[in-house]
Write a structure and sequence with these properties.
The protein is of the alpha/beta class. It folds into 4 domains: 6-91, no CATH class; 110-166, no CATH class; 194-364, P-loop containing nucleotide triphosphate hydrolases (Rossmann fold); 371-559, 3-Layer(aba) Sandwich (Rossmann fold). It contains 21 helices and 23 strands. The relative contact order is 0.10.
Amino acid sequence: MLNKALIVQSDRTLLLDVHCENAEAARQAIMPFAELEKSPEHIHTYRITPLSLWNAASAGLTPEDIVKALTGHSRYEIPAGIIEGFALTMSRYGKIRMQKGTEESGSLILQIEDEPIRLEIAEHKILQKYLTPILAKTASHAFSLELIHRGTVKRELIRLGWPVQDDAPLAKGEDLQITMREQCLSGKPFIPRDYQTAAAQSLVGSGSPGSGYGVVVLPCGSGKTIVGMLIMSMLKTNTLILTTNVAAVHQWIDELLDKTELTQEQIGEYSGDNKIVAPVTVATYQIIAWRPDKKADFPHFKLFRERQWGLVIYDEVHLLPAPVFRVTAELQAIRRLGLTATLIREDGEEDAVFSLVGPKRYDVPWKDLENQGWIAEAVCTEIRLDLPENLKIKYAAAEKREKYRIASENPLKENTVLQLIENHPEDQILVIGQYLSQLDSLAKILKAPLVTGKTPNTEREKIYSSFKKGEVRVIVVSRVANFALDLPDASMAIQVSGTFGSRQEEAQRLGRILRPKSGKNARFFSLVSHYTVEETFAANRQKFLTEQGYKYSIQRVENI
């Protein structure tokens, strides 16, 4: 039995012995129905959750398929009881089906075969606003709903533990010829990687009801943008792309021009700077979610109705703002792609992503792509420093939130940053932090450019360009660097402060330096004040790194 790689536990965790010769076969077998939680050196931990089982059910797997996968790879007998639990959870997917109504009504039908479920749904006060019982004899267990409420109803039902099987057809959208180049404008040959093609195909599917929407999870630096473009080339339709900031908008536009045969006139930028709507339009979440005051409507929601979109791409979907959930709920007839490096949402709204954007269609562990050379090997180090004597009393008397800021802005970090930069003269370095006063001071000491949310977009782009050309070796950046920042030559990051215990932020910051470099590892340093609350929050952020399999060492400042 020791040649079997999997240990199934009664709490629905799966332990995968990566040193077993059959580990890869076991991993491939469980990935469709289990979420990877930790992947350090020896034992990887997966967990089976209701969401992961509903993902599996939406992909066509049955409880019998899961039992076969587990029994075929389990080292020990599967604990009694959990198999029945899988079947019960999975059976909830498909009990409620959303289908196209009659042509005359222009509405949708919510079909429910089980009378107890129908009664539960009928009594739910929020759903009563959207659902109208169909009283015809042949459809006594059905409700009708308006097209505009398709996403809202799905979201409410998943909160009740009833994931909807959405078989209503998707709109085709306006045709647009999108062809991938064989050679980039830069002159390099363009050959999509196998996993990028597989990810794109997993979303497009057969084109039948139930396909054409969902989420692709790939590490930072692995080419999620290319997956989006491949899907665009498969669907050949007008496309709206939503992303995190203006720099990311420009990166998408540059990539589209470099790797597809789309022209500049066919691509529009919709941001605070420009409001151009074209067959392919790239917009920021900020402009979509903007409104003059809390009581006003969102004026830029009109963008979703200005063209006959056939595809909406949500870049960094784990950051989808709450107001955009509202408009996404109205866009259920359009093909939808979510791209992300991590489905972790600090607000716990993963089920909203499932119901409004779609189930996870494709995932691959970070370490797998590192082992194949597609992303850089990273060495992660926490450096602990003491607080200076003159701050210890102030720290002791402060409230918890203020304690964190005092520890984060420890002035002794400045000398440590200088020393690290001096010790690594060959690296292109990002110094990343949370507090602007701290970053401003560091930029002056390092004589390095500073990029914050207040930096004009034209100036940001000049700084990024200088960094890419090697004219600038160090950039100091605020939280704007967390998302969709394309600096492929960055090989080292020094994190001087972070957003409390955000694992999501840790993933994004590490991702800034994961583009592969010939013969060079990526280095990720976190500076943490010893014996302070910063250590506690850092431990939570670092948990993400160790779970993804990155070696993490802790050093005292005198040992660097």
